[in-house]
Design goal:
The protein has three domains: about 1-100 and about 170-305, no CATH class; about 100-170; about 330-565, Alpha-Beta Complex (Spore Coat Polysaccharide Biosynthesis Protein SpsA, Chain A), CATH 3.90.550. It is built from 21 helices and nine strands. The chain has helices at about 1-10, 15-20, 25-35, 40-60, 65-95, 100-120, 125-135, 140-160, 175-205, 210-240, 255-305, 340-350, 370-380, 390-400, 420-430, 465-475, 495-500, 505-515, 525, 540-550, 555-560; strands spanning about 330-335, 360-365, 380-385, 410-415, 435-440, 450, 480-485, 490-495, 580. The strands form two sheets. The chain has a seven-stranded mixed sheet, sandwiched between helices. The chain has a two-stranded antiparallel sheet with strand order 6-7. Helix 3 (about 25-35) crosses helix 5 (about 65-95), helix 9 (about 175-205) runs antiparallel to helix 10 and helix 14 packs antiparallel against helix 18 (about 505-515). The chain starts with a helix and ends with a strand. Keywords: Membrane, Transmembrane, Transmembrane helix.
Amino acid sequence: MILGLQAILHFQNLPTLVMLTATSYCVETAILTLCGHSSQSRLEIGRLVIATLCCAGILLGEYRLLPQVLETAIPAVLLTGAARAFWSIIYDTSAHTTIIARHVDALLCVVGSLLTSACIFFRRGNDETVERLNSALEFRYLPLLALNLFATAIAIRTGKSVLVPIDNGKNGEGRDEVDENTSDIITLFAITGIAGTLSASKLRRSYTSWPQYIFFAFVMVLWSSRGLTVRQGRSCMAMYNAIPNDIALHSVDSEATIVSVLSERSDNTCVSAVQASRKSIFFRILLFAIALPTWLAYLTLNFSEQVHENTTEAHPILDLNYTPQTDVEFVISMYKEPINQVAHLISTLKKMPNMPDPQIHIYIKDIDTNLEEIQQGTGAHKVTPLPNIGREGETYLKHILGSWDTLAKQTVFLQADVHNPREFYPRIRDYFVPDRTGMLSLGWSGQVCNCENCGDRFNMWDNTHLFPEISNRINNATKCDKVLLSYKGQFIASAKRIRGVDKSVYQDLHKAFVDRDSWAHQEEYLQGRRDSMDAPVFGYTMERMWNLLFQCNSMDVAWKCPTLLSGNRIGGSVEDCQCLDPVL
């Protein structure tokens, strides 16, 4: 339960998460086969292997993967399949054990509540968790929370899960296992369409690709054909099971006796079987009636550009008259990082074919460091000492102001200890375009906020309305709609975009860092948050504002750019993750 909730929280493409629940059926079948509880023919094993590969294809086709998704979504679907398998084994092998459904549901609710409460309240040293919980319990969110609690209670009461139900008695009421499996597949198909429609209509963007649709369709066909195969096998064996074993056949001519016994035994079960069959057929027709229009809407919203939300995007103001003398320059903000680590960063970047002979400029904020040793150990062209103020945000602004007339054509702004190094280097290799890259963020992608009330799930809120103010100063009061946030303090920007913004904007932002009496160090802005000159709260705001500052707010970048973990997008291009400068 907890893994499932965490997967929903972190998965940016909810329809893909719903599709991946088909993996549970693969896991269930595999466990039942390995435990000897279910015998499978070669055809069934081949079907299982192909279905598993299709589920893997659904996951690999997703370009919005996060580490939290892999840590929660995959274990959630695997454990769900294991739970279904072991439940079937226990139920079938414990025929004399009475399982009271109410007790199971009550135990599940109590354990789930206790575990969830423990995860929320017993995270020592992290007061932000309680603060977020308190904000979530505001009055305006109560109807949504009530709906969520009601839906969760219904799901638990009716079968532990809506997507992959675990019935308390599989074959006890006239429905056979094939009927239940077929209904489960249809339910999964319908819920995927509903989730896709709601997701696409809410976000006006969807991240589902054609290969994911194709793989999911293959899974649906494979599991549906499995039911047909089992039915045909049963019909072929029906004549052998028609005569009960306990009938004493006194004569080969005792056909009347057989018919009499069969009639007596079948009269009581015929009515219940017919009723169960009618309910099953009605349920499937209802699901298909829901699934077909929702899938039609899902596909339309997913691939049609005309229904997407229109946002106001100002054209970038570029300095086209500036002539740089340097093609590429690395600006590295360093504190106490090991020199060999920084040297490895520089040497790795210089080996890339799209990094033509870069200049290296290191800003060091450790006053006890030997500058000559750093320059010799890293091969830097220049090492500049700075007071330990403002972290990397102040360093970048200091470089822009101090090198205004000598800026390189494209500047790579980095911290000495880069974030996500495994994904960092491929992002530069795959997306950096010499002479074209205008703004390329090298951190998390796809996070968007409203300009007038900007905030994110990491508890950053623009309570001083700095985002619309900066936007107005850059674009001459052009309306600021959506802002594409940047993270990690590592990015590449061109001189055209840097110099396209008035120099006074950078001066004011730099003053907010270094002036102890500036608004960025006052309680009205801090609102109880811990602040210091070497670790200012304003640094987190500045980290998210680089895209806005360098005029890269394209919503196409917001929805097309793959995450660092995914790396690339099927059918994508270098434009997916950046704003390119025009070719002159």
